[in-house]
Design a protein that fits this description.
Keywords: Lipoprotein, Signal. This is Lipoprotein. Residues 26-67 are annotated as: Disordered. Residues 41-61 have a biased composition (Low complexity). By secondary structure, this protein is α+β, with helices and mostly antiparallel strands. 22% of the residues lie in helices and 26% in strands. The protein contains 5 helices and 9 strands. Strands 1, 2, 3, 4, 5, 6, 7, 8 and 9 form a 9-stranded antiparallel β-sheet that branches. The longest helix has 19 residues, at 247-265.
């Protein structure tokens, strides 16, 4: 078994999980394009992570409605490049992110293992911050073999604060570990923090990479993740694929999306084109 060593923070972190790397990650275009993935009917187990303590910050200017959530969604113009918006992003599921964490392989056992489990389950279910408590909307874009999923939603404030604290802890708790697919293949997973533009009330950027094989050939899935909190609402962007991450697009989506959300909460109509 591969047991990659950690930094000074931890001696080792090895995860045994179900299926974590298949081409479903980002090889499909969510529409008519050819996909190299196998559909997985199973759902990941419920997250077992204990939430960290809440933070005290500001509240939004107004309540997010379903109409407002849809108005706060970005468009192709907001992220430029060659992204194409799709109609079925809510059906996207990356079967390679399903997995069970083996707590015996963690120095701090259940605590870190549960946090890594929650990360994998949240990425798979597209509910990284948990279930919204109010209005929510999502949209998706494809560019070659890469995908970008954009979500805006209202959350219980205390739970959202807990989730932001949890995200901040992941680069240390889950910096590198091993996952085992249902067929027994071992993959190396790494979680690294990266800085986002100074948007919203609070923000967190993460890069998650999974090294394994696809169709018998070595492959690396890279997902860049950006979360911005605005009061009790949050924007979540996940983008990348087998050809690498999409940090620039994540940042552009969050910059334009934060302004759109602020407009909606203030009772204004977001502009049809990016503001800058």
């Amino acid at each position: 078994m591969i047991r990659p060593s950690r930094t000074v923070r931890v001696l080792a972190a090895v995860v045994a999980s179900g299926a974590l790397l298949t081409t479903a990650a980002c090889s499909g275009d969510g529409g008519d394009g050819e996909t190299r993935s196998a559909e997985v009917a199973a759902s990941p187990k419920e997250s077992r992570a204990a939430a960290p303590a809440a933070r005290q910050t500001t509240t939004p200017a107004g309540d997010l409605t379903e109409e407002g959530a849809r108005a706060a969604l970005i468009t192709e113009a907001d992220i430029e490049d060659d992204w194409t918006q799709v109609d079925d992003a809510e059906k996207w599921r990356d079967s390679l992110l399903i997995g069970d964490v083996d707590v015996d392989d963690f120095i701090t056992a259940e605590a870190d293992a549960a946090d890594c489990q929650r990360l994998l389950d949240g990425l798979y279910s597209e509910e990284l911050l948990g279930k919204p408590s109010g209005a929510s909307a999502l949209t998706g874009f494809t560019q070659g073999d890469s995908r970008l999923l954009y979500q805006v939603a209202a959350y219980d404030r205390a739970e959202l604060d807990d989730s932001m604290n949890w995200l901040e802890s992941l680069p240390e708790k889950c910096d590198q570990f091993t996952a085992t697919a249902s067929g027994g293949e071992e993959r190396t997973v790494q979680v690294v923090e990266y800085q986002l533009p100074d948007e919203g009330d609070e923000r967190q950027g993460l890069e998650v990479t999974v090294q394994g094989t696809v169709d018998g050939s070595p492959a690396t899935l890279t997902l860049d993740i950006g979360v911005v909190r605005v009061g009790s609402d949050a924007l979540t962007v996940t983008a990348g694929g087998l050809n690498g991450g999409e940090k620039d697009s994540v940042e552009a989506a969050l910059q334009q999306g934060t302004e759109r959300l602020k407009d909606v909460l203030a009772g204004r109509t977001p502009p049809a084109s990016p503001t800058s």
